[in-house]
Amino acid sequence: MFIYDQPIKPDARPAAVTAPAGFSVLDLAQLLWQRKVAIASAALISACVAITVGKSLTPKYTASAQLYVDPRELQLVDRELTPRAQDLSGLAMVVESQARVITSNNVLLQVIRDTNLEKDPEFGGGDAKGLLGSLLGLVGIELRPTAEQQKQIEMSALEALNRHINVKKTDRTFIVDIDVWSYEPAKAAMLANAISKAYLAESKQSQAAAARRATSDLSGRLKELQERLRNAENTLAVYKAQNNFVGTQDTLISDQQLSASNQRLAAARALTLDAQAKFDQIQASRKASSDVGAIPEVLQSPTIANLRAQQAEARKRQAELQAELGPRHPALRQVEQQVQDLRRTINEEVERFAQAARNDLVRARDYEASLNKALETQKRQSVQMSQASVRLRELERDVEASRDVYQSFLKRSRETEEQESLNTSNARIIGEATVPQRRTFPPAMSLLAMIGFVLGGLAAAGWIVAVNQLMPGTTAFQPREKAPPEASEEPAAAEVASEPPAADLPPQPAVSLIEKPPIARLQEVDVMRTLGGILATGGTTDVTRLGWPTLRAGFPQMTVLTALREMRAALARRAGKTPVMAVIGANPDQARSIASLNIALAAARDGAKVLLIDADLREHALSNKVSHLDKAEPSRFGWLNIGTKPPRAIATANGISILPAIKATDAKAGDAIRKAIVQARSAGSHDLVILDGPAMPWSPADRKLLDMAEGLVAILPVQLDINDCMEDIIAALGGTERKLVGVVLSEVNPAASQQRDKQYA
After folding, report:
1. Residues 619, 755, 48, 186: is their CA dihedral positive or negative?
2. What is the distance of C-alpha 134 from the center of its chain?
3. What is d(CA 572, CA 417) in angstroms, rounded to the nearest whole number?
4. What are 696-732's pLDDT values in tens digits?
5. Helix or strand or coil: residue 739?
6. Measured between alpha carbons, how far is 675 from 641 in angstroms, rounded to an integer?
7. CB count, 10 Å around CB of 606?
8. Tens digits of per-residue pLDDT, 657-695?
9. Rounded Cα–Cα distance for residues 725 and 372 (Å)
């Protein structure tokens, strides 16, 4: 028989002797050493009390999300609605202000509406309909709370949520941490992520609201500015028409005419001076009786040029005749008369040139006088227009100012209207909250036990010293050299405690043939619990999210994992390729199925490919847990048809394939499971096959399944008498107890997971 709860026998203590007079540190040490058993007992009792108190406290889990809040927002447009802070103190104040915004009522109320916290009992919600509401709910009538009641419920949830949040800013950084605690780890992570997302949404909405408000204010002024600009332009147009201000945008026609007249007058004066110079030159040449060839205009005349050529020819003829004939010869006389006639003709031509120059001079003077008169008139008009331009420029400035203001408002209104759809915030989530694996309160049981042990020991030691000082006759010292060798007796006491009494020993053959298998303790501190109804996802199945307590991740050196490795090593020594382990138990509840799932999870975390088969042909606890998963993959055992529906193996994200139970007779279901085991061994697709069951009492079909298993693991819930359960299992095995490779003492309470699933499903 296996006995797992045999108490350790207390060892005998020597009688105390009378304490000597006086007191010293050495005597104090001797006193405490003599009372070490009492001190250790008190310390152990305090440690047990601390663990009990810690287990009675509701654990709290804290999830943290990290936000990067950069006050230097994105520069999407040239002109922003709000000025930017540039100095370090200003930037720090902006980040601190944003940290306060995270816990503002707008953000938290949005979180409450998104997550329906007003219905969560942890935040003051729950079913408060009363008896009347429950009775009406039975007939399909639901009482809805009024608007005032709904507001009060939200305020209560807001106050509770404020107590669950702690927002802190890391020094000299723009990082803001959002810590949220809850009694459920998944809920804490969900709330932390919901708060960070609600803050980003609130930041975006506040920017859009500011841009929308600015656009509305600017648009309200546009009509007034437009009307003012129209009135100013009409006044300017009427004034121009009344005062004959006609022209282009740059200059008026009168100014253009005045400028043109000045240019023409200057040109006329130049022509007059040219004509006067020409006339004076001709007159001077005539008065001086000089050669007409000295006048440039005369030389340019072809008539005078021809006459001068004829005159030159006549003079040449005259000179020749004077040399040949006498002075009175008729031919000479005739030539002389011809020369005189040519000279007279040339003088007449020069006179005509002089007359033409005189006429040009008179005409140039008249043209200049007329231009000068017109210019004087235009000057008088320009002076009058200049006096009127004072009012004109005033009206033009008014129009330009109204136009600039209107255009500025119109452009800014369009900019702010476009900024409504822009998110210039530079805040972002840099670390999403994950489901916490460890609680933050109460501390770990080991720490509580250590604190209780230390405080209990100190309290016991203080009590002993106080009693020794106040009542010297009740405590005695024993010389150190005569102190009993308790240290040497502790191993002997341990040996006595490990050996059962002679009266309880089983027959000698049974003891000599059965080796005591390794024992594993599955405790609450080794597992984590999840809400199966809330955390079930539509992706790949995760066995840690089925709602059952599963082993914590990230702790490979846990005692329970070491014991499970020893069981698998013992099974490997007995079997060859793909060993089969059957998990059995005497109780009909879920403790065996939970232990089977954790044994498979421990093997999968060590790198083994595990096939977990539900061999409980009556309860189907594991199958019922995974029956809602619709993304099961076809098994390699699809040829094992029972009726018309083949079994399907569910592949999980944890390296475990789960083969649910088959709804058929015990014989057919057992045959299908045995064929699945044979197929797994032949295919070599799995390193270990674990059977969840069968449940006791075993039928012939169940015993056939146990015959295929090379090793058995017995599950003993500590809520029951573990020795009685072990006796029932050994009696049911009927001689096959040699297959036992391990015993699991389950301290996990499955009822807690069922209650949470019913509450949050």
Report:
1. positive
2. 43
3. 74
4. 888 888 888 888 888 999 998 888 888 888 888 888 8
5. helix
6. 11
7. 16
8. 888 887 778 788 888 888 888 888 888 888 899 988 888
9. 138
